[in-house]
Specification:
Blueprint lengths: L1 H5 L3 E4 L7 E4 L1 H4 L2 H15 L6 E5 L2 H13 L2 E5 L9 E7 L4 E7 L8 E9 L3 H12 L3 E10 L14 E6 L1
Parallel strand pairs: 3-4, 3-7, 7-8, 8-9
Antiparallel strand pairs: 1-2, 5-6
Helix pairs in contact: 3-4
Bound molecules: adenosine monophosphate (AMP).
Adenosine monophosphate binds next to strand 2, strand 7 and helix 5.
Amino acid sequence: MPQDIQKLIRDVPDFPKPGIMFKDITPLLVDGQAFHRAIDLMAEHYKKHKIDQVVCVEARGFILGAPLAYRLGAGIVPVRKPGKLPHETIQATYALEYGTDTLEIHKDAIPAGGRVLIADDVLATGGTVGGVLKLIEQLQGKVVGIAFLIELGFLKGREKIKGHDIFSLIRY
Ligand code: AMP
C-alpha cells in the first residue's frame, strides 16, 4: 500500500537549507519488504512499455533506478554531476530555484531510438528532470516515461515536463 510506504518517508525540516522540508527516504530503504513493494509498484506501471534503459539521476535516482531496471529487464544509464563519467560526455545546464546546475551523460549511452524510462526519487520543481530530458533528446532517445517515488505536487514540476507519462508513487 502506498500509505504504508508513505509512513516510511521522514520529513526533515531545514535540510539542506533553511525553508526546505527534505523528504528522507532512508527509513524506507532500510525496510526490505517496504522497499521491495515500492519498487514493484513503480515497475508495475511500466511493465508493458518495453523499456530498453532506465536513465538514473545521481544520486538517489541510482538507488531506485537500479532495482527498477532489473525488474523491467532493462539496462541502466547513469546521469551524473560534471566530471564523474570517464568517457566522452554531453552536458545540459538547467535552472534551479537559485542559480543553475549541470548534468552529464555519456555520448554513446543511449542507442538512437532507444526507449528509456527516467527514474529519480523526488519531483520537486522539475528543473533536474528537465535537464535530463534535454540530454536524452540530444542523444535521440525516446522517453517512454518518467518515474518518481515522491512528487511534491505543490511545486508544479509536472507542468515543466508536460507531454510525458509521469508516474509518482507518493504525492504531497
Ligand atoms: P527539482 O529539480 O526541483 O525537481 O528537484 C529534484 C531533485 O532535488 C531531486 O533529484 C531530489 O533528489 C532533490 N530534491 C528536491 N527537493 C527535495 C526535497 N524536498 N526532499 C528531498 N529531495 C529533494
